[in-house]
Amino acid sequence: MSLSNISIKTLNMFDKAILEHKKKVIEDIYNTYLQQEDHKYSLEDINKELLKHSPPPKRKIIKRQRKILDCCNARVWDSKGKIYNRCKFNKLNNSDYCGIHKNKQNYGNI
Ligand SMILES: [Zn+2]
Questions:
Q1: pLDDT 10s digits, 20-39
Q2: H-helix or E-strand containing 75?
Q3: Residues within 5 Å of ion ligand 1 by Cβ?
Q4: Are 48 and 99 in contact (CB under 8 A)?
Q5: Total-model pTM
Q6: From ligand 1's centre to the CA of 61, what distance in Å?
Q7: Any residues with CB less than 8 A from the CB of 89 and at least 6 apart, and which?
Q8: How far is the CA of 78 from the centre of ligand 1 (A)?
Q9: Where do the structural domains in the chain lie, given as residue ranges?
């Protein structure tokens, strides 16, 4: 299993759990070893120093791209973009067109 198969929500939950664990470890160390040391550093200062928050590395979002060769050969009108595009549906077996365009291509072929 690769990291790309784990949802961002799960990764964020994991990051949060690690942060909580770090805070607990720092607090334990502080209470055991540093609290009596002249009160030179407060727990808050140590937490600030050790848990400096750096932004998490940007995660790539990989979009699956439809194989252009499997797409229908019909030309369609994209009313949003005001341009002609290629139909995005898959070809039917033994045909160059999808189910919608197998008999009629209103705007021709690509
Ligand atoms: Zn089509």
A1: 999 899 889 888 887 776 66
A2: strand 75-78
A3: 72, 74, 87, 89, 98, 101
A4: no
A5: 0.41
A6: 28
A7: 71, 72, 98, 99, 100, 101
A8: 13
A9: 3-50, 65-110
